[in-house]
């Protein structure tokens, strides 16, 4: 039971991270490899806000959300927009976002040094609950609640609002969307902003969960994020949620029953099998190629 | 002097070799991140299986390790490649990445690899050896570039479907590219192991794979020197920074990343695009026999004799989820015929030719084209049987020159030259020259000789359509299928095209073409077939078709259902080319209904199953 809950908590963070990833991929068909750097940067910024700014943990979250959004705009402007008309935009966008991620991490190193950082002692409430014999902290419950709320909010936005309609139009056919008066550049920028804001919140929540932030935390979760969006189906939001939870559970149980050193083999084994059997993922729709 | 720079020079060579393993697949348009896994497998198996240097001498030990490492890398690529070659783009990248990570973790948990502590390996590799190995790899890719094999890979990168239609076995080419990448990565792994003294599975992780990819892309993934330039760039930046005294820990990675961003944003072709590129020139023309002369036929493949059956369709049908795009079509094409296929939008014309050329399997009925049964035969085999085609929406190899496009078209009629080019055999040169002559002849035939060096994407629309025809001609087909060749041409160009088609037919080619320019069809064809709602509604000589009341009704509607909001009514208003097209053939206008000239059907913009 304890394992199940732990798996769900960590899985919800994976899902939140992966949803940002898959949002950009699903709508713009670009893989943004600066996303993990946003994840790491926001964890550091979150800690700084609590430590220096004296904010409470929960007051820092909205600020980090905004910070992530701004970072997303910067990424779009610098790494993706200049490439949008190139025939190899796919490769080039990968590389330019890797470059931008490298710059971001270097800046973090400049500001915070290479060491691991933690939240100041006493930032967490130590309320605990017993759920069916398992220990659950208030922090974990809040993490889960925030992740789910953000994901539900995002789904609502994509399916119901004007912005979401624009996004879906751009995903379907950017040229047609432009002809019909959709401001494709603005939609693109908004997509990046929302994606990065979600990644940023995921970063802080992750840092809260394990109470550490490291420069390498982004690359550690990057592979998992990729696995999640493949398993769930590229571009599928509910798929990313399910994939994230699956991965969290698989990891926790793998550590329990197989041994911690084999944890990642299970994740990638799962990924591989899914790619071979169902390349479009659990909930992805296969795009039909035109002749 | 040289000793001082030995370390960075060795790392440049090693980095370049690793980047070549990415280049090997990037050139075919595949994004793979599995090379780190191949390198790890090659390094560990090479280093632990090769005899020790004390027994056989250090250099032979290294050579044996290299042989083992490359073989293991190539084998791993086959094992990974067979199930994953159908994946594309990011999916392939992530699947191969998953493989590399799994390899890393498995190696980490084995005792013979030393686990996380790593495996100690003697240092044998010197700068000279590293650069020798690099030279061999670079030579390989240099000689590949202008071979038939290298061109086929580039064609696959630019447009896989068109490459298939030109007779290229895409699956096999993609797999061989992948295996090459595996072998080169294995080579890198072994060389790396014999240089750094201690290897651990962590040396071949995701970060290493991304670095290899970045190196290849920064250098330029379309020119053989690219990986070398990229590796020099990536290795020298930290060295230069150290030399000028930049010490703070964060500035170095920041500047390196910044320069990477600058290169990728402002040099689309990578660093290699700074180098001047030698373009192949058109061979001089005088005395070249015209393409199509029976004497210059480059293949042994027999062309059907005039009047012989080229294609026989019986009860052919295609259904898309309940919609019958083509229904029960019986059709026979005889050698030397020029058959025009006309019909309103969504009549199933493109679906029909897609079935004939092997792109789409029929859902009912059967068809034999040039002795090959349509359905289970892959597209490239249909092309090998002598079917060549153009596409409704141009599918050219956009970043290749016009001449290179046609050279790819000659894939089937030229001989493989890569291995002979490695050995500089004169026969390879002769074969390349012959292919070039043929390609040049085809370009001349469609009137594009002056534009041979122009990139396909830079050509005007009409020229692109003609280039497609030249490319299709280059394979010396028996049956040529043209899907709306005159779309977007003005009437002068269209009548030029009509002349070309007639002259090709005189050379013995069988031609099937879809066209909305009815005037041109009636003028050019020996026989016209009219499709409507997936069925043949009329077939006969141009005169018969022009006078056929069923055809007139299909095109114009009867006076009774003029109120019916069909595609014809919309088309009349929407088709701006109708007027000029009708004007090219006064005969058509008088033969058909008086108002026909103004009511030619609009270009086929609806999906083919929208009947």
Low-confidence regions of chain A: 286-291
- Quickly count the helices of chain B: 25
What integer value in Å does the Rg of chain A equal?
19 Å
Task: Supply the number of helical segments of chain A.
Answer: 11
Helix fraction of chain B by DSSP (H/I, runs of at least 4): 40-55%
Category from helices, strands and their pairing of chain B: alpha/beta
| Oligomer description | heterodimer
Give the tally of β-strands of chain B. Answer: 12
Distance between the termini of chain B: 76 Å
How many domains of chain A? The number is 1
Largest interface: A-B, 47 and 51 residues
Task: Please state roughly what percent of the residues of chain A sit in beta strands, choosing from under 5%, 5-15%, 15-25%, 25-35%, 35-45% or over 45%.
Answer: under 5%
Identify the strand order in the major beta sheet of chain A. Answer: 1-2
Helix content of chain A: over 70%
Strand content of chain B: 5-15%
User: How confident is the prediction overall: mean pLDDT of chain A?
Assistant: 84
Runs of chain B in which pLDDT lies below 50 for 5 or more consecutive residues are 561-611
Secondary-structure blueprint:
The complex is a heterodimer of chains A (291) and B (611).
Chain A: H1 2-28, H2 35-51, H3 57-80, H4 89-112, E1 128-131, E2 134-137, H5 138-160, H6 162-172, H7 174-179, H8 184-210, H9 217-232, H10 237-257, H11 263-277
Antiparallel strand pairs in A: 1-2
Chain B: H1 6-26, H2 35-49, H3 53-56, H4 58-84, H5 89-108, E1 119-120, H6 127-145, H7 148-158, H8 160-165, H9 170-196, E2 198-199, H10 206-219, H11 226-243, H12 251-266, E3 309-320, E4 323-334, E5 338-342, H13 349-356, E6 364-369, E7 372-373, H14 379-385, E8 387-389, H15 402-409, H16 418-422, H17 426-445, H18 461-473, E9 479-483, H19 491-506, E10 510-514, H20 518-524, E11 527-532, E12 535-540, H21 542-547, H22 549-556, H23 567-574, H24 578-583, H25 586-591
Parallel strand pairs in B: 5-10, 5-11, 8-9, 9-10
Antiparallel strand pairs in B: 1-2, 3-4, 3-6, 6-7, 11-12
Helix pairs in contact in B: 1-6, 1-9, 1-10, 1-11, 2-4, 2-5, 2-9, 4-9, 7-9, 7-15, 10-11, 11-12, 15-17, 15-18, 17-18, 19-20
